[in-house]
Amino acid sequence: MVVSALATLGLVAPATAAAGGPRHGKPPVIKAGAASRSVLPLVGGARDYLRAGLPSEQDAISPGVFVREWDDGRVAVGNGDSVSHWVHDDVRVRALALSDFRGRHLTVLLSADLYMIFRADADLIRKKVAARLPGVRLDVLVGSTHNHHGPDTAFDVNHSWYEEMTDQAADAVVDAVHRLRPARLRVGSGKHWFGMDDGDPQVIDPSMNVLQAVGTNKRTIGTVVQWNNHPETTLGWAPPADLTAECAVLGWQGDECHAEGRYFTSDYAGVLSRTIARRTGAEALYFVGALGHLVGPGGANVWEVDRRHPLGNQFHPPPGAAVPGGNGFTYTDKNFRRAVVIGEQAAAAALKIVEHGEWLRDAGITLRRQPFYSRLSNIGFRVLLVVDPETGFTQLGHVPPVAYNCPATGPTTDATCRSDALGSDVGPPCVYHYTDTRNARRGATLDRPAHLRLGGMVTGVRP
């Protein structure tokens, strides 16, 4: 996963910043464009099943449209089961392209409704973007929402699907670039607690940071929201829907007949993006940030918010507040309606924050990298990164990363670290490598969690 794009971009304004439009007569200072694509697996070369009647936002228990088999064969659910057969809602990748008004260099934020995207796999997306936009100077910052119910991108990857996903991601970036138009940026920062809980110790950061690109015609182009909450509202939950017909098709009997971990959904993060898109008419990207011990919806009180039952202190339901999903559920029980309520309220909070935010004037976009090595001490990850000579893949992610062995003590540099050339050597500390195509030097960014060769991208907006 990458460091949150808003924190990386440094586009955070105080919650008390002046509201209102930009000064009259100020010329547009940037260009912006946004686009999105579905990254769900294909059936018959298409995703027509999305038009087969997905569950309504009021439905608390349906796992979604049943799919017997995918074009690419078995597709596991990230952090779920090894098979998937239901689609509750769309899973998408979204892009927001930004440039200075002269368009000499582009920065693109890319957010996927997926579990995680590793460094080498993010590089594949960037490579495909470069092939589609030859001669265009741009940096693509790749992130994922850490959604636990999308197609698996980490430990049980369907590599044919992953290639299709990276094509969709690259196409979304290209579409966003082609839609660049004059715009202004506004930013805001506030706090939102609703739907958040943590393990022990309780350490929760409710900060919500919002960036919005608004065209000079006053139409929103794209919104970016950064908040710190795991999208795992229904993780580990078996929807109590009648699946008799579907299980008969699959030959499942008894305890085997269930949908737990076998459906695709974008969780509350997708609801947040779709809700903002409906209200603004433009794409909305979501990024997670600091997640503490296990900050997520589990254990949090969630209720149907309305005028008579407001958010209040955001932790305790007002007397008489309705339970998401209705009878049979409690304020802390898992269900699909709960995810909708959390996403809708987060979207409302984000729009309120940016509405009272600050317009950036005379902004310029800059980017720099600082490469460094970081030790990979997790022996389990090191074993997973051994390349299988029969398949050409590792057991982690899609594209095999180049690993490095570095000295246990002393400086770790290009001169002291030795590449394993995609071999099976998992000796002393390993690091990963990528090529910075723009500057033709080695480095990496925080797409990968590990003794990595990291290049922590820092992009800033100069007010």
From the helix content, strand content and strand pairing, which structural class follows?
Answer: alpha+beta
Low-confidence stretches: 1-23, 425-463
The count of domains is 2
- Please state roughly what percent of the residues sit in beta strands, choosing from under 5%, 5-15%, 15-25%, 25-35%, 35-45% or over 45%: 15-25%
Oligomer: single chain
Average residue-wise pLDDT: 85
Major β-sheet, in short? 9 strands, mixed
Ends distance: 28 Å
Form type = globular
Task: Output the number of helix runs.
Answer: 7
Approximately how much helix is present in the residues?
10-25%
* Whole-angstrom Rg: 22 Å
What descriptive keywords fit this protein?
20 strands, 9-stranded mixed beta sheet, disordered C terminus, globular, alpha+beta, 463 residues, 7 helices, single chain
